[in-house]
Amino acid sequence: MYKKNIVMSVIVLSIVFLFSFTSLASTKKCIRVGESKKINLSLKGKIKWKSSNKKVVKVSSKGKITGIKKGNATIFAIKGKKKIVFKIKVKNCYYKADFKNATKMMARNLNNGETKVFYRNEIENFQNIINTSKYYKKMSKTKKAVGDLSYTYMLYNNSNKLICSISIGYKKISVNSGKNNIDYITKINTDYKKFKF
């Protein structure tokens, strides 16, 4: 009986030892480029956060993760010898142009001041070019300079009410709809020749 108790004690202590010095859990999470999420833990006290790849996912001192670009990374939450591992997958958050309610588009070339009006078929062509270019959310603390923009497009519905405005520059796009102004970026150059004036 005495030996049995000793064996049981050793087993329990071994489990506690392993639990204390290895990761508590491995969790998979998925976020999009530009998206932020707070990781909530049951651990109390000061926790050290670390990202295996800050170019893909960054993490704040309070455990808020932000997707920077498409890819995979690991986030570690460390307290003493205890560690929780989070496998993070970042997906691209593409801007999906949908101008089905637009009947007129006013365009302006910011380089020379020329303007032109486009209608239904040309608007659809413009929509397709944007979606083919795959603009995704850009994480930037600095505002875009005027020189970064080349064209501005104002889209209107049947009642001549402004739906949204799109500003395009070198590999960049800025979408302004209502109160929201969102910047996107693409890895390829937009073919400006297709936007003929």
Structure explained in plain terms:
By secondary structure, the chain is of the alpha+beta class. It has helices at residues 2-21, 120-133; strands spanning 23-32, 36-38, 48-51, 57-59, 64-67, 71-79, 82-91, 104-109, 115-118, 136-137, 149-156, 162-169, 172-177, 180-185. The strands form three sheets. It has a seven-stranded antiparallel β-sheet. Strands 1-7-6-3 form a four-stranded mixed β-sheet. The chain has a three-stranded antiparallel β-sheet with strand order 2-5-4, with no helix packed on it.
Short description:
The chain has helices at about 1-20, 120-135; strands spanning about 25-30, 35-40, 50, 55-60, 65, 70-80, 80-90, 105-110, 115-120, 135, 150-155, 160-170, 170-175, 180-185.
